[in-house]
Amino acid sequence: MTNKHNIETVFATGCSHSAGGGLETIKYADDKVTLVRDIYKEKYNVWWDNQLEVTYASRLADMLGCGVENKAASGGGTGRAVREAFDFVKRNWDKKDKLLLLLELPAYFHRLDMYSTNLNSWVVVNHSVNEDGVRDYVNATRGYYMDGHHGDFENTNKDGALEKYLDNFIDYDIEVAKMNREAEMLLTFLKYHKIKFIYFEGGQKLKGVLDKSLLSNELNIEGHTDFHHWIMKNGYTIKDELGADILNDLHPGYFGNIKFAEFLYQYINTHYDIL
Questions:
Q1: How far is Cα 188 from Cα 265, in angstroms, rounded to an integer?
Q2: CA distances for 28 relative to 35, 57, 97, 257, angstroms
Q3: pTM beyond cutoff 0.90
Q4: Other CB atoms within 10 Å distance of the CB of residue 152
Q5: Which domains, from first to last, does the chain contain?
Q6: For residue range 242-273, what is the model confidence (pLDDT) as tens digits?
């Protein structure tokens, strides 16, 4: 089914902000007893069977009357977003004129996209370095809040392999340059082939890097180019919807996702000629 814009499939990628983070069906409130979904049911009489159902991508697809594919993942970074977007377009090349890509580019150094030969799978690698340059956190997973993935870090880091790699082959400036290069290559590729897309980023590392010809596809949401800033400014987080005493979570809320989808729907109607 297509619509007046000839969009057959909405594709989304990014981090937890685009993956329904905080609204997982097994996510607990701060009391560690009550499920977040149950609180929404009691307070607002809403329900969902899968967190992807409540994402802005799914809501937008419903408004457009088309299909949706959401590859966003909690903890995911720009490298993963670029890979998933390229793979999606290649799989759907025969209908590339009927695609709309929503690209959240989490431009953060500590979010790596790596392939684990022990797991035979891509994994999200999250790590952090303190002020002294010492790594104080590292984790690897095929998916947060997903059954069967609790031992992913141990399997990925056998004999300290992952930590040794990070210590010896990862440099901040090099990774940021790589991230920017991959993002620009993807956006240029989409622009050249006239594939419809909108991008927005977290971290703001792409500012002043991208070719000006790509800027027309950057989302501008009431002066913001990071939709999560807009979500927080307008009180559309889970914390705002449930109360800080229930869950101090700044992810987009159930209704926040709907608000952003409504904004995107109007944005598409008014900016379609430059997508």
A1: 24
A2: 4, 24, 41, 19
A3: yes
A4: 22
A5: 9-108+173-274 (3.40.50.1110), 111-172 (no CATH)
A6: 999 999 999 999 999 999 999 999 999 988 77
